[in-house]
Amino acid sequence: MLRTFTLKEADKVCIFFTREAGKVRGVARGARRLRSRYGASLEPFTEVALTYFQNESRELVSISDCEIIHSQFFEQMSGELLSVLHYFAELVIEFIPDNESNEKVYRLLAATMETLPRAESRELAAIARYFEIWILKLSGFFPDWRYCGLCEKELVGAASVWITNEGIPMCASCSGGLGDELKQVDWLLIREIMTQSPANFINGRRDQWSVNRIGKMAVRLINRVLERELKSYDLLDRLRPAELK
């Protein structure tokens, strides 16, 4: 379950992500009543077994049954962790089309949600970078950084790569030193993101400055694609400890 909204006095609109149908929006009738049959199953970030019916003439499906498989609301959840969860949900809602099966995004969500409860506060920024890079890649907006976008020179192994505001990679000569500089350590960190599970990624050693540089670049790409800033990221950024910014 990604997010819920109030609909009238007794109902809720729910946005959930399924393995078979991708992102789906539905109505849970009576979900806001005190003795609702849904209980806590519609809480955001809860993994559920869902039954719903779809009418082709209606945009929203009708949710008939929802049973909890696993809840992410473990004890002592920090404000920062809750903000990370809301941020991930908003990224999926904004980047992934409705009603399109996407097994890779489902696996990304499942693996990341499984990793988060074991993550320490200092590791949340790295997990956020992991999710940002992958959601950009799986939605088709992550650039191919193997070659310079102008001269087509191979960039793998270069001391630095410069990224334009449009997300285009440039070699040192073509960039003129303008744009976001990604050092070799940043490039290697991105390669780790691309080749490791989130659990293995956070267990490795990371340079915090590199994590921050990748984050600034990823957020700039996200904002450019969406043509606006995400509210959930602003809250997440304000909650992060100053030494991790």
Task: Set out the fold topology.
Layout: E1 3-7, E2 11-18, E3 22-28, E4 47-53, E5 61-70, H1 79-95, H2 103-115, H3 124-138, E6 160-163, E7 169-170, H4 172-175, E8 180-183, H5 184-195, H6 198-203, H7 208-226, H8 231-239
Parallel strand pairs: 3-5
Antiparallel strand pairs: 1-2, 2-3, 4-5, 6-7, 6-8
Helix pairs in contact: 1-3, 1-8, 2-3, 3-7, 5-7
Would you mind describing this structure in some detail?
With 245 residues, the protein is an alpha+beta fold. The protein contains eight helices and eight strands, in the order βββββαααββαβαααα. Strand 1 and strand 2 form a beta hairpin. The longest helix has 19 residues, at 208-226. The chain is elongated. The two termini are 30 Å apart.
Quick recap of the structure?
The protein is an alpha+beta fold. It has helices at 79-95, 103-115, 124-138, 172-175, 184-195, 198-203, 208-226, 231-239; strands spanning 3-7, 11-18, 22-28, 47-53, 61-70, 160-163, 169-170, 180-183. Helix 1 runs parallel beside helix 3 (124-138) and helix 1 runs antiparallel to helix 8 (231-239).
Please give the count of helices: 8
Distance between the termini: 30 Å
How do the strands line up in the largest sheet? 1-2-3-5-4
Q: What's the name of the CATH homologous superfamily of the largest domain? A: Recombination protein O, C-terminal domain
Radius of gyration: 20 Å
Return the structural class. Answer: alpha+beta
User: What's the average pLDDT?
Assistant: 89
3D shape: elongated
Helical residue percent band: 25-40%
Total count of strands: 8
Largest sheet: 5 strands, mixed
What CATH calls the topology of the largest domain is de novo design (two linked rop proteins)
- In percent, how much strand structure appears in the residues? 15-25%
pLDDT < 50 stretches: none
Quick one: CATH class of the largest domain? Mainly Alpha
CATH architecture type of the largest domain: Up-down Bundle
- What is the element string, with H for helices and E for strands? EEEEEHHHEEHEHHHH
- Indicate how many domains the architecture comprises: 2
